[in-house]
Amino acid sequence: MKIDLIKYLHQHHGFDLFILESGMYDVREIMQQANAGKSIKKLAPGNIFYMYANSKEVTPLFDYVNEQLNTDNPLLMVGFDSQHTGGLSLAGLVTDLTKAQEDIDNTWVHSPNWQVFCQHIQQVLQGSNVRLSLVQETLFFSQLDTLASNFHLHGNGFWYRITKELVAQAKRQWQLADNRSEQMGENIKWWAEQYPDKKIIVWAHSWHLTKEGNKQVNAGKVVSEAFGDAYYMVHFSGEQGQYLSYIDLKNKELTTLK
């Protein structure tokens, strides 16, 4: 039903930007390869979040995005999650981050402390929950702040957002703070700024998109405050039958309503 709704909104109501709950970098890399002729559905496992990439109910949507790429009305797909856990991130994010900084100033990237810095980023991307020493941790976040400032000053919004997300990802994994969803909202805002004339569909877990988070700022709160009545949330609920659990991708019986 969700896929049919997306197709309907795209074909008949001008919605042409689809923002999916998966890592910004991973989805960007997938779409670059898709534009070169590769299948999004085949690239998705291990890169797009598993509950979407491995679901037979969702993957036809990826074929649809592929089919629309070379038409007069493509459905552009981007990611907005602040977590970068896909294989593409693990393989290429640090390298591309280095190139982005090198375009600004190559002095830092050729210094020994950049290599250590990149090793710590790679550990975060690999999901490590082992904190650095206090001295290393303080330096690590300071370096990320410096990097973010560099990208901001030079107008590189994509890598600015990635850098802010690396801060959020590290703090979440190290149990220092959890503002993943808030950063997701900031990413949606940024994408909307890049495509001010597009109508947007966002697909994510319902909690992220509600207008009030539970004991923390979530994406929906950030977006609703930014766009007001232009932001709508559609929630699907079932009365009977089965649903697909995103946790283990198995069908579960719905609880009977009383």
What's a quick, concise take on this entry?
The chain is mostly helical. It is about 55% helix and about 10% strand. The protein folds into two domains: about 1-80 and about 180-230, no CATH class; about 85-175, no CATH class.
Keywords summarizing the entry:
258 residues, mainly alpha, 2 domains, 3-stranded parallel sheet, 13 helices, globular
**What would the principal axes of the Cα set say about the shape?**
globular
- Ranges where pLDDT stays below 50 over 5 or more residues in a row are none
Count of DSSP H/I helices: 13
Main β sheet profile: 3 strands, parallel
Order of helices and strands: HEHHHHEHHHHHHEHHEE
Range of helix content: 55-70%
* Structural class by SSE content: mainly alpha
* Spatial ordering of strands, largest sheet: 2-1-3
Q: What's the rounded overall pLDDT mean?
A: 94
Work out the strand percent: 5-15%
E-strand count: 5
Radius of gyration: 19 Å
Quaternary organisation = single chain
Total count of domains: 2
N- and C-termini, Cα separation: 25 Å
How does this structure look, described?
55% of the residues lie in helices and 10% in strands. It has 13 helices and 5 strands. The strands form 2 sheets. The chain has a 3-stranded parallel sheet. Strands 4-5 form a two-stranded antiparallel ribbon. The two termini are 25 Å apart. The mean pLDDT is 94.
SSE map:
Elements: H1 2-13, E1 15-23, H2 24-35, H3 40-43, H4 50-53, H5 59-68, E2 76-81, H6 87-104, H7 106-109, H8 112-125, H9 134-153, H10 157-173, H11 180-194, E3 199-203, H12 206-209, H13 219-227, E4 242-244, E5 251-253
Parallel strand pairs: 1-2, 1-3
Antiparallel strand pairs: 4-5
